[in-house]
Write a structure and sequence with these properties.
Helix content is about 25%, strand content about 30%. By secondary structure, it is an alpha/beta fold. The longest helix has 13 residues, at about 25-35.
């Protein structure tokens, strides 16, 4: 059985490593553009279904990453499979992954996001697709508010986070909540997720992290080691995004 969160407080990465930050300025530009694009839709199709999109919420039509997450999890495409047990999504956004998990058979789904607009958006899509009876939304910074309105010590069979995998300088301060979906200053959120997630998973369950080679993979591994965690690649998928090919990776996190 996994015990409480391992405390890991040391820094990950030297100044030399920090200079290897990939594309954080470009990611911030994408964030700002996505909020004001004239072609930003109110609804959009994905995975054979129609989804609502609220202002201020990460827009899956403008990025291949949500579709990649669905395929990595086996919620769509040739690897699609039925799901069972409980499912927690951190950073739910529009709720595509959480709602799809409920539709695939998960009987208890919790969808959490630090953005209040994203929480509302997920609730809208849960109602749109008829799974509001088994999908709960929570306004939470990672795991902070999961205890509200539920039994103490609840554990989940699957915990999933499609992370904000682009590393920003430790001193960067967000100008909007929307930017939190794109970059993580100093990988502070990743450190918290690696340290805290195992305390919320059920015996025999899985903690899953969707990362990408746009992020700093060596820095992620260094943080995992400091936290007493191991990262195992479950599967990966290469996706064409504009003029680039990006590798999306699904890691399983275990206690070392």
């Amino acid at each position: 059985m996994v015990t409480g969160a391992h405390q890991c407080v040391t820094g990950a990465g030297t100044m030399t490593e920090i200079t290897k930050i990939k594309d954080y300025m470009r990611s911030l530009e994408r964030s700002r553009a996505a909020l004001s694009r004239t072609d930003r839709p109110r609804t959009f199709p994905m995975a054979g279904r129609e989804w609502d999109l609220l202002d201020g919420v990460f827009a899956p039509p403008f990025s291949a990453s949500t579709g990649a997450a669905m395929e990595l999890l086996g919620l769509t495409g040739p690897t699609a499979k039925p799901w069972s047990g409980s499912f927690l999504e951190i950073g739910c956004g529009t709720g595509i992954v959480a709602v799809s998990a409920a539709l695939a058979g998960s009987d208890r789904v919790t969808a959490a996001d630090i953005s209040e607009a994203a929480v509302r958006n997920t609730a809208m899509n849960a109602a749109r697709h008829g799974v509001a009876d088994r999908l709960r939304t929570v306004h939470s910074d990672l795991f902070d508010e999961l205890g509200a309105g539920q039994a103490a010590g609840e554990r989940f069979d699957t915990i999933f986070w499609h992370s904000n995998f682009v590393l920003a300088p430790p001193g960067y301060r967000y100008t909007t909540v929307h930017e939190r979906a794109y970059v993580d200053p100093g990988y502070r959120a990743h450190r918290r997720f690696l340290a805290e997630a195992p305390a919320h998973v059920a015996d025999g369950g899985a903690v899953l992290l969707h990362f990408s080679d746009r992020g700093d993979i060596p820095a992620l591994h260094a943080i995992a080691e400091e936290c007493g965690r191991e990262l195992r690649v479950l599967r990966s998928r290469r996706v064409r995004e504009g003029e680039e090919t990006v590798e999306h990776i699904l890691f399983e996190i275990t206690v070392r």
